[in-house]
């Protein structure tokens, strides 16, 4: 057994450190680890938001840390049904409303994008968590694999450009 096996937090010299993401617990741990490793920017493609996805106290603390990290901070989120998350009082909605200039939310308009069933999280450190079916708790993840992240980032940017701002999440100034 190597030191890296004993110490999972040890730095990885030039490797693409994979994270386990085979079940619900591993996916949640990978998501939290990626959020904690991000410095200023993340991109999230999540067709539907449930309480178990980006809703835990620890995940929200990391999202808040990112959003308030200073100049250049940006959280971009694509969600198919933002009104469902609003209706269900997802905790991420409140963060997005308080920090609407940093937490940017869009919803796809085109059928091809609305039919996309995968989800992913991309970090500015080259990390990613990809779930081929967002409803299932399995996927693949890496702390730093820009080559593996590149096609997901390209997809995200393309859908982002074709999407509309999720105005339902905007705070009301009454």
From TrEMBL:
Residues 1-22 are annotated as: Disordered. Pfam families: DUF7931 (PF25559). Residues 24-165 form the DUF7931 domain. This is DUF7931 domain-containing protein.
């Amino acid at each position: 057994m190597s030191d890296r096996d004993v110490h999972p937090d040890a730095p990885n010299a030039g490797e693409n450190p994979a994270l386990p993401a085979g079940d619900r617990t591993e996916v949640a741990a990978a998501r939290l680890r990626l959020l904690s490793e991000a410095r200023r920017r993340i991109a999230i493609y999540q067709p539907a938001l449930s309480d178990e996805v980006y809703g835990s106290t620890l995940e929200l603390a990391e999202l808040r840390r990112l959003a308030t990290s200073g100049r250049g901070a940006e959280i971009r989120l694509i969600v198919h049904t933002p009104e469902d998350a609003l209706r269900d009082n997802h905790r991420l909605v409140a963060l997005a409303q308080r920090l609407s200039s940093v937490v940017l939310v869009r919803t796809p308009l085109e059928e091809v994008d609305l039919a996309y069933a995968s989800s992913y999280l991309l970090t500015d450190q080259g990390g990613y968590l990809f779930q081929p079916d967002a409803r299932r708790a399995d996927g693949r993840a890496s702390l730093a694999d820009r080559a593996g992240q590149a096609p997901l980032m390209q997809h995200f940017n393309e859908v982002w450009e074709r999407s509309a701002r999720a105005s339902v999440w905007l705070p009301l100034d009454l």
